[in-house]
Structure formats: C-alpha cells, structure tokens
Amino acid sequence: MVISQQDKITVSQTVIIVTNFLLGTGILILPRTSVEAVKTPDVWLSVIFGGLVAIMAGFIMVELSREYPGKTFYQYSRDIIGKWMGGVISLLFICYFLATSGF
C-alpha cells in the first residue's frame, strides 16, 4: 500500500502530538502519583524540570530529522557517531523501548 504525501504526518505535527501527550500526562497524572509516593508537595519542580527536558529532547529530534531527511534514527546515528557506536546506541534505544512498552 502506497501512502500519498497528503496522508503522511509531518515532523511538526508529530512534535505537537507528542508534546501534548507529555504535557497532558505530566499535568494530570504525574503530580498526584509523585506527591503520594514522596509525601512532599515540592514534587511539582521535578515535574516541570522533567517536562522541559522532554521538550528539549523533542526539539533535538526535530532538528536531527531535518538535518537527515528520509533517514531513520538508526541510519543517522551511524552517520553522526560512527558505525559501531551508532549501532550500540540504536540497540540501547531498542532495548529501552521494548522494556518500557512491556510495563
């Protein structure tokens, strides 16, 4: 099945979707569960800091996808840091996503 250009999600649309998901989860769920676990109301600082780190990571991903159009993370990581180390980093990402998707 061939997907037309109009049916594809652009990088900007993907960033907006992921950012909204992260903010929605962070604002609605994370503070309550964090406060219950830590027993202090100052957890909101950690939630804000974590959200900023996630947004910065999203911007880095967008810039890399613009710098290397048409390439996957695996392909441009090998171009940036070398064949062997890029493969190791890609394998670590695969393991991370497999582990987090299982829970």
TrEMBL record:
The chain crosses the membrane at residues 12-31, 43-61, 81-99. It holds the Pfam family Spore_permease. GO terms for biological process: spore germination. It comes from the Bacteria. This is Spore gernimation protein. Keywords: Germination, Membrane, Transmembrane, Transmembrane helix, Transport. It is found in: Membrane. InterPro entries: Spore_GerAB. The keyword Transmembrane applies. Belongs to the amino acid-polyamine-organocation (APC) superfamily. Spore germination protein (SGP) (TC 2.A.3.9) family. It is a multi-pass membrane protein. One of its GO terms (cellular component) is membrane.
